[in-house]
Design goal:
Layout (H helix, E strand, L loop, with lengths): L6 E2 L11 H21 L9 H11 L21 H12 L11 H4 L6 H11 L3 H5 L4 H14 L9 H11 L1 H8 L4 H18 L3 H14 L4 H10 L2 H25 L2 H9 L26 H24 L2 H4 L2 H17 L10 H13 L3 E2 H13 L4 H28 L5 H17 L2 H6 L4 H17 L9 H5 L1
Antiparallel strand pairs: 1-2
Length: about 475
């Protein structure tokens, strides 16, 4: 094994197959663990919730025309529409907020000009906000289902690895902060659908994979960074089925949204809560990245932030497609999609902790499918949580739980080596680095005394995770005789 890729190999215990009863028990334990941790951390914070739950309330009360008004809500654009439609049914079925009358058409204003403010005012007095937030528990469930579907196509399915990996995915700081601090359940749902699409592809069901990725796009538009490279790397027959499936979902949805709502609803489908779009931008970006420091504007900014990641992902896919033995390899496909999703971080003008959720998920999945868990992966996950410090009330607990779990794995690896009379210097080095970095940077005193700009964290974390994710793609850029030899 290369010294550059020290890894924590799966033990016999993690590879132990589980019976159906044992799987039910372990999944129950994982669910209780995640739910209990969320409750201990103070529950789900509203964060950016109005971007997706205001449309949900409007749809639940039959006001489709005012579900996505052009002005957004509280100065923020609305999120992609899938989550709003998923939760509108339960909101209507449970009659949330029924004690207070929903705003009338007059109150919503001409052309829905006052819709967002009126709906938020109603929800506040009707006590509908907190109950609606609870539906976001669908998000980690969707991510878990997608991961399991992928693992059972090619990986450690139905073994102890399965619930252990899902627990690691859900407790990774970028993932759990997306759920409880920023309230972006739509991101986790999209990631679950992307993993499920890869699982379908590995079963040669590329039509079904196209459907899943189209739905993922309706949940969070970064799914395009998974769709684009797959279009390039698939064979002609697979590509035709895949593209037709994507179009069969997105085209009718686009037409329906425009018909029942407005042009702003179509914008929500295509761009979601993205603040950088073609044409006039109604919403201000917050910056903090390398690209932001260049002070670009207009079409050039859009091309760099939104088109460039797609182009780079497709160029990488083209290099892989030239090697049939690589294009059909499961690890290469997962690596390609992971790098594509992470390309967003290279060209971003805004950067928040939950933006790293896609990279974190794909990194863990790639390692597990490869039959290993690199210590470098665990250190990166921990450091990504520290870099963009979540809400104060949850940060310390998140890092204590995550670092303790990771430290336990590292210690187990060291003890395993000691019992075999072999010193695991790599595991020891990563363990010391992990504990030191977390103790130093996760300290509130150090955090407030030492302010590291977002672009600096971006310059460290993004190349690092691209290196970890892109290892299987390296063969595509080596001469064929070097690969086969």
């Amino acid at each position: 094994m290369s010294r550059r890729h020290r890894s924590i190999q799966p033990s016999r215990f993690l590879g132990y197959p589980l019976t159906r009863r044992q799987r039910v028990l372990t999944w129950t334990l994982v669910g209780v663990l995640v739910y209990g941790l969320v409750r201990v951390l103070g529950g789900i914070d509203s964060g950016d919730s109005f971007e997706v739950i205001v449309p949900s309330w409007a749809i639940a009360h039959g006001s489709l025309a005012c579900a996505f008004p052009s002005g957004g809500v509280d100065g923020n654009p609305f999120g992609a529409p899938l989550y709003a439609f998923l939760t509108a049914g339960p909101v209507a079925l449970l009659h949330l907020g029924s004690a207070v009358a929903f705003p009338s058409g007059t109150a919503l204003g001409p052309h829905c000009a006052s819709a967002a403010a009126s709906i938020v005012h109603w929800a506040t007095f009707a006590n509908a906000i907190t109950p609606t937030l609870q539906f976001s528990y669908l998000a980690p469930l969707a991510l878990a289902i997608g991961a399991v579907y992928l693992f059972r196509a090619r990986g450690p399915g139905r073994s102890v690895w399965e619930p252990t990996t899902v627990a690691l995915l859900l407790l990774a700081p970028p993932v759990i902060s997306a759920f409880i601090d920023y309230f972006h359940p739509q991101d986790l749902i999209a990631l679950g659908l992307i993993l499920a699409a890869l699982g379908a592809g590995l079963r040669a069901r590329w039509g079904f994979a196209g459907v899943l990725l189209a739905v993922a796009f309706a949940s969070q538009q970064f799914a395009l960074l998974a769709i684009a490279p797959l279009v390039v790397v698939l064979s002609a027959r697979e590509r035709r089925r895949f593209v037709l499936a994507v179009g069969a979902v997105l085209i009718p949805v686009s037409v329906a949204l425009y018909s029942v709502s407005s042009l702003s609803a179509l914008r929500v489908l295509l761009f979601g809560s993205d603040r950088i779009t073609l044409g006039a931008n109604l919403f201000t970006s917050r910056g903090g990245t390398v690209l932001w420091e260049l002070h670009l504007h207009g079409s050039l900014l859009f091309m760099l932030t939104r088109a460039a990641p797609v182009v780079v992902a497709m160029v990488l896919a083209r290099a892989v497609a030239r090697r049939p033995e690589l294009a059909s390899d499961p690890l290469t496909l997962v690596s390609l999609v992971g790098v594509g999703l992470t390309m967003r971080l290279v060209f971003e003008v805004n950067l928040f902790g939950y933006y790293f959720a896609a990279a974190a998920v794909m990194l863990v999945v790639l390692d597990v499918l490869h039959g290993r868990l690199r210590a470098a992966t665990l250190v990166w996950l921990s450091l990504s949580g520290i870099a963009f410090y979540p809400a104060p009330q949850s940060a310390s607990a998140v890092h204590i739980v995550f670092v303790t779990a990771v430290a336990a794995v590292v210690v187990a690896r060291i003890l395993q080596g000691a019992l075999g009379h072999h010193v695991r210097w790599g595991a020891i080095a990563y363990g010391v680095a992990l504990i030191t970095v977390n103790v130093v940077f996760a300290s509130p005193f150090v955090h407030h005394a030492l302010t590291v700009p977002g672009w600096a964290w971006q310059a460290v974390l993004v190349p690092w995770v691209l290196w970890l994710l892109g290892a299987p793609l390296a063969a595509a850029f080596r001469p064929a005789d070097a690969v086969t030899g």
